[in-house]
Design goal:
Keywords: DNA-binding, Transcription, Transcription regulation
Strand content: 15-25%
Number of domains: 2
Oligomer: single chain
Distance between the termini: 33 Å
GO molecular function: DNA-binding transcription factor activity; sequence-specific DNA binding
Largest sheet: 6 strands, antiparallel
Mean pLDDT: 84
Shape: globular
InterPro entries: AraC-bd (IPR003313), Homeodomain-like_sf (IPR009057), HTH-like (IPR037923), HTH_AraC (IPR018060), HTH_AraC-typ_CS (IPR018062), RmlC-like_jellyroll (IPR014710), Tscrpt_reg_AraC-type_HTH (IPR020449)
Protein name: HTH-type transcriptional activator Btr
CATH topology of the largest domain: Jelly Rolls
Low-confidence stretches: 1-23
Pfam family, one: AraC_binding
Structural class: alpha+beta
CATH superfamily of the largest domain: Regulatory protein AraC
Strand order of the largest sheet: 1-2-9-4-7-10
Number of strands: 10
Length: about 325
């Protein structure tokens, strides 16, 4: 599993920032009623003969007055609410939206999306088309006229982040990679969906709160006990939450967040290993390198050589 974790965590590096919406000319179907947005445009003139094409996607933080109403849409779209509350209207039928709500619409689908909470919703989306598009999205159950509810929300967030990363890449295989991720996303939705309006366990909300706390404060957090204390729960309960919903331990998640950031500093900021170790609060570079290797399977200096071709200067 170490190899899989490496791929997933490295890709997540590129979804950490939340820049404001770009000032470039964007397609007319893209809403500007957002407080923050991160978008990618892979193919805005897709061939009608292709089997499956990812057009664009991204994530958005809605304004509190966000309302989008359309009678039609040029592509198929899958959207997922990560935070906040809203209302979805499909063919004049209203449905509540909350964290974990996933829905879809397509050509000739009348839809309205509205923010309802005091804080704007955060949602992810991907638009796509192609000869197989309708068949694939139908298989998810999302075109039944009702949103689905998923449990392991973070698993879908990881896939949306992967789409964001590869959708920004200029490589020759970007489209092929993104269509593969899109198909995986749809399979994951089928697997994780618990049905429209289904009751997700209340403890899942606690898990989401703790997970966000770690994501927002991983730089200063040092232990599971500290996380549990700050979130008002016991370390044992915290471990149970991550075992049930996270597919791993809370400490492993905390360390991965730290090592994600470390890899970003090493690869994107060209910082030295000892500088990163100091930034993350490790006693020395050796201790940091051991922790890094446990997550990625390779020491930081080897990762630098593999991804950049450069070697650190000898100390």
């Amino acid at each position: 599993m170490a190899g899989l974790d490496l791929g997933m965590t490295i890709l997540n590096l590129f979804g950490m920032a939340d820049p404001s919406p770009a000032s470039i000319n964007e397609p007319a179907f893209v809403s500007q009623q957002v407080a923050e947005a991160r978008r990618y445009y892979l193919d805005l003139k897709p061939s009608p003969y292709e089997s499956l094409v990812v057009v664009c996607g991204g994530r958005e933080r809605m304004r509190t007055d966000y309302i989008v109403a359309r009678k039609d849409f040029p592509y198929y779209a899958i959207e997922m609410v990560a935070e906040g509350e809203g209302q979805l209207t499909l063919e004049n039928v209203h449905h509540p939206l909350r964290a974990g709500s996933v829905f879809a619409y397509g050509p000739k689908t009348s839809h309205r999306i509205e923010n309802c909470g005091a804080v704007g919703m955060k949602k992810y989306y991907v638009d796509f088309c192609g000869r197989r598009a309708k068949q694939l999205v139908d298989q998810t159950g999302l075109m039944s006229g009702k949103p689905l509810q998923v449990t392991a929300l973070h698993e879908l967030v990881d896939l949306f982040d992967m789409l964001d990363h590869d959708g920004r890449d200029d490589g020759a295989m970007s489209q092929q990679i993104c269509t593969s991720i899109l198909q995986l996303l749809m399979l994951k939705i089928q697997r994780l969906a618990v049905g429209p309006g289904a009751n997700v366990p209340r403890c899942y909300d606690t898990y989401q709160t703790v997970r966000r706390h770690i994501e927002d404060n991983f730089m200063r957090l040092e232990s599971v006990a500290q996380v549990a204390q700050e979130c008002g729960i016991t370390p044992i309960y915290l471990s149970r939450l991550f075992s049930r919903f996270g597919g791993g331990g809370a400490y492993q998640f905390l360390i991965r967040k730290k090592m994600n950031y470390a890899a970003e500093l090493l690869l994107e900021e060209s910082m030295l290993v000892k500088e990163v170790a100091e930034r993350l609060g490790f006693a020395d570079a050796f201790q940091f390198s051991r922790a890094f290797k446990r997550v990625y399977g390779v020491p930081p200096k080897q990762l630098i050589r593999q991804h950049t071709g450069r070697a650190e200067p000898a100390e």
